[in-house]
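Students often ask what a 'structure token' actually looks like in practice. Rather than answer in the abstract, let us consider Arginine--tRNA ligase, a protein of 563 residues. Its sequence is given first.
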Amino acid sequence: MDTLHKIKTAIRQAVGFDLDISYPPTSELGDLSLAVFALAKVKGQNQVILAQEISQNLEQNKKLGSLISDVKAVGPYVNLFLNYTNLGAEVLTEIKKAKNKYGQNDSGLKAGVMIEFSNGNTHKEVHIGHLRNICFGDAITKLLTTSGYKTIPVSYINDFGIFTAKTLWQYQKNQKQYQAMKGSQGYILGTCYKDAVSALEGNDASKAEVTRIMKAIESRQGEYYKLWQETRLWSIAYLKEVYQDLGIKFKKTFYESNVIADGLKIVSGLIKNNVLVKSEGAIIANLEKYNLGVLPIIRSDGTALYPVADLALAVKKFKENKITESIYIVDVRQELYFKQLFKILELMGYQQKITHLAYDFVTLPSGMMSSRSGNVITYRELIDESIANAISETKAKRADWSDRKIKKIATEITLSTIKFEMLKVSSRKTITFDIKEALKFEGYTATYLQYTHARIMSISKKSGTKKTKADYKLLSEPAEKTLIMKLAKYPETILRATEKYDPSEVTKYLFELCQNFNDFYHNVQIIKSKTTVKAARLELALAVGQIIKNGLELLGIQAINEI
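Now compare that with the structural description of the same chain:
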């Protein structure tokens, strides 16, 4: 149990009621505030008088003497001022001892949770819109893990849809052109798909040809099936490159082509049970009585749609894994689809918790991205251009560094920036991605956080190696108290972010922590202060550095020691 949680628990025990404990808007009003509305209602007592009684009782409570320095009743609230001498000692000692484990909790009780994200497609490009899914899913996995859940991150690759036939149709028509292109084969397939979408628009004859190719692939025989097998491996290899760049690891990877047969068997059984029905040559789920409309399952031409494989995969997940919850991370456009899918699973008898975590779009300053219009930034274009810019800027600042070191730092800055931009707003908000703004050293950016961490590491290095025991009682400056309280709030920030499935809670906390530290750095001497004070302030700075590192790791970002 972390220090702040212990204090809140002790206060509630002293009061004898589970009061709501919040934070006043300014430190002048107190560090913690108790609202007595609920207790006054239970007791049938005047709120103001009850607040005064509680205030007096807390002041006289000996167990709280080391934790609370003052208590004041203000209307229906009881405001408490913490004893920062003891708070600082406990929090800093806890961080120094726990290190990268500070902030962890066991709220998940080792419950099994499967998180499905990065549902990429073979034979398509990977662009910055996909990066939001990947970064969000990885952060959710890390949050759940640090909160005591047994997580199983998985990826589901769509490798058997109509888009594969479109790409192969285009590739066969212009094979020499694509073979002459530079870049990995998987990346080239993405370009091929984009070209196919444009070429097929308004071309009914070619669309019919694509349908025939899709049926040939589904038959699992013939030249098109062989070409599908070969090109599928190109895409899988390219996706692995992307995951390796981003440091993403999955415990399992599912492929649509491997579950489609089981899905067709499930569909057959659901038709017999009248969950699915035939309609005008197609097979559908009529969910109108649940206000969920109609979900097509199999087209009238006999080709399968996404629900066929999704049903099979959902069954496979619960059958083969000990999980209490299955989480799908897919964009907001699929909200109705997942409600429909979950309803069918419910009608099949599945009662386990199934959650769809939706996220909104990534746009560019010029507007919405569109593969058809060409207004899209591919992953490879983004990474290569961003690293090149970061290398140029780093060279200008660090002429004494080797080219190898410059490239390493530039790559880390680029990846930090991209991940942070994908996570710094709540998933329900649109992201306008502007790499130039994101790379700035000031403002709500990863670079600002990394620069602050590097500054702390520099302070530690310059402080020398002489060991002096820190006296935390000397941390009495307002900026120091602000930092101590902020550090104490880190564990509950992690818990809140986990409960809300919201990594942006962590990004906001880290940004505010860095602001607090830089205020401290500019207003309080560290290295040049007296030896005893210097030791305490250095411990405080190192604790901040540890929490920045911990928080960044939850976002899938590696802290940089020098920039």
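One point worth highlighting: The first strand starts at residue 20 and ends at 22. Ask yourself how you might have guessed this from the sequence alone, and why that guess would often be unreliable.
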